[in-house]
Amino acid sequence: MTSDSDTGSAAGGNELSYKTAGVATGDAPPARRRVWFPVALAAVYWAAAIGMARMEVSTFVRFLTLTAILAVVLLGFLGWWLFTRRVSWATRLLVLAAVVAAPVVGVLLADKSLGPITVTVGLPIMFAAWAAWLLAARKASPAVWRNGMVVAIFLPFLAFALFRMEGLSGSGDPDLHWRWSARPGERYASGAIAPAGAGASATSVPTTRGASAAPLALRPGDWPGFRGAARDGIVHGVTVSTDWEKQPPKLLWRAPVGAGWSSVTVVDGRAFTQEQRGEREAVVCRDAATGSELWVHEEPGRFSEALSSVGPRATPTFDNGRLYAQGAAGVLVCLDASTGQKVWSRDVLKDADARMPDWGVCSSPVVSHGVVVVFAAGQSKKGLLAYRADSGEVAWSADAGVLSYSSPHLATLGGREQVLFIGDDGLHALDPAAGTALWTYAAKGQPPRSLQPTPVGDSQLLVPLGLEVPTDLVDVKRSGDTYATTKRWTSRNLKPSFNDFVVYDGAIYGFDQSIFSCVDLKTGDRKWKKGRYGNGQVVLLADQGLLLVLSDKGEVVLVSANPDAFEELGQFQAVNGKTWNHPAVAQGRLYVRNAEEMACYELQPVSR
């Protein structure tokens, strides 16, 4: 009978040589090592991870599924290791101690931004490294075999000390960077932007070329706020060359910027955006043609969150010579758009008695009937707040739910202008002047909700209802002062999550999760789904039926708005780094930014 420590006569020569070398002989020599089971377990996990990354499943379902598979792999690995008879108990316990200690050491050495990612991502890599070593070292000596296992277990967790996390990617995976690399927003200090002074109070710092006292005025072709004049991502009056091989968009200027997910507002030759600059939030005005900084207004405050990173989330809104900007910490400011001087400011969360939303205040203001409307996340029917545009006094408050990352939206339905807002309990429609409720479309569902409702004519709305969930087409009928809503269809072919879409000639164009798609407006049926750009945003050049798609990796793609076939016409890398910011098109120029840089491109006109 063979004992656990007896390797058998077939390996007697090897065992004798190991004894002679003074090496413990309790572990199996090369001839007796069987490693197919742990190798198979590691292969099963990684096959599932790669397969699910290409499947149309929600991030939540993918997370739960891979967590369950990881638990099975963990139990399988440890069970196999503890009960394998060809390994001494000393080696078994040593390796088990390494499995327990490695994640602890990894967490202690890793950047605090990684948090539990160190363990949840490190464990699958550890099992793969462990299995790979077992397979590669089958013929190694017992000492090399044993010590190599310990190294393979520790190495994946130690590697995390080299990285930090800047939130998630658009697909929900960790966005990892070298730990010593510059953080988003830090580059602006050494670039073309001169940061304003860091005092304790709000400041407005114009430069000598800064601003003039002449009031700015909205011109045809300008882009006065989030997603354009109608917040629908549609541009009129612009025609461009579709041959990007011969006439690609021309770079006019590029500049580093402070961190944030704000888009760009372009009015009367000025480009406005919001940035994080150290411990202060900044509204920045640039010359739209050259990129030179004209003025900066700063307010104390810094919002940072592990999954969505740091900086302002909203986009400034221009109206009647003034700029309205909502910071991530909840401060709403009204500025003179030409000089940057502050007219008034309000703490929206304080006014609404609201707690800070998990991902910050994201609402881009909308202006109508002399009031500025923002989402306030407040209880007691203070979901939306309206401030008088001239003075900043509270004009009205209204119930619109308490959790949303969407923005108020102006639309005319049934011949009447109204403010629309998608909250956690559905879609609300209010009179912009008085804040009275006109109608609601109840839709409790999975938050977060961060997109805009999209009017289709005078009596229909496309309503995106949350993270990786279907979109509804809703009929809105008016009879006198009464409205009735009826759902026409719900389409699982359009699950835009954080990616807004556009409507053109009876078709919807946008991201269905991570793939750019076309959906029939009348039926909700899919026409095509082929643009593998990750995640991103889209602008429609309506005069030509062209789509400018901005991926979350900073790539701009020109796509034909053709419901019958997917046709990519050109592409180029506009900015580098994670790009969650919406693009803007004004006066034939494309403005793109992210948390690191901002660039302006001239869209070349059609050749004559």
Keywords for this entry:
608 residues; alpha+beta; Lipocalin; 3 domains; five-stranded antiparallel sheet; five-stranded mixed sheet; 7 helices; 38 strands; elongated
How are the secondary structure elements laid out?
Elements: H1 12-20, H2 36-53, H3 59-83, H4 89-109, H5 117-136, H6 142-159, E1 163-168, E2 174-178, E3 203-206, E4 234-235, E5 250-256, E6 265-267, E7 270-277, E8 280-287, E9 293-300, E10 304-305, E11 309-310, E12 317-319, E13 322-326, E14 331-336, E15 342-347, H7 348-352, E16 366-368, E17 371-378, E18 382-388, E19 394-398, E20 409-413, E21 416-423, E22 426-430, E23 437-442, E24 454-456, E25 460-464, E26 471-479, E27 482-491, E28 502-504, E29 507-512, E30 515-520, E31 526-531, E32 536-541, E33 546-551, E34 555-560, E35 568-573, E36 584-586, E37 589-593, E38 597-602
Parallel strand pairs: 4-32
Antiparallel strand pairs: 1-2, 3-9, 5-38, 6-7, 7-8, 8-9, 10-11, 12-13, 13-14, 14-15, 16-17, 17-18, 18-19, 20-21, 21-22, 22-23, 24-25, 25-26, 26-27, 28-29, 29-30, 30-31, 32-33, 33-34, 34-35, 36-37, 37-38
Describe the 3D structure.
By secondary structure, this protein is of the alpha+beta class. The chain folds into three domains: 9-162, no CATH class; 225-260 and 499-579 and 581-608, Beta Barrel (Lipocalin), CATH 2.40.128; 262-402, Lipocalin (Beta Barrel), CATH 2.40.128.630. 19% of the residues lie in helices and 34% in strands. The protein is built from seven helices and 38 strands. Strands 3-9-8-7-6 form a five-stranded antiparallel sheet, with no helix packed on it. Strand 16 (366-368) and strand 17 form a beta hairpin. Helix 3 crosses helix 5 (117-136). The chain starts with 11 loop residues before the first helix and ends in a 6-residue tail after the last strand. Mean pLDDT is 87; it is low at 1-25, 192-201 and 204-210.
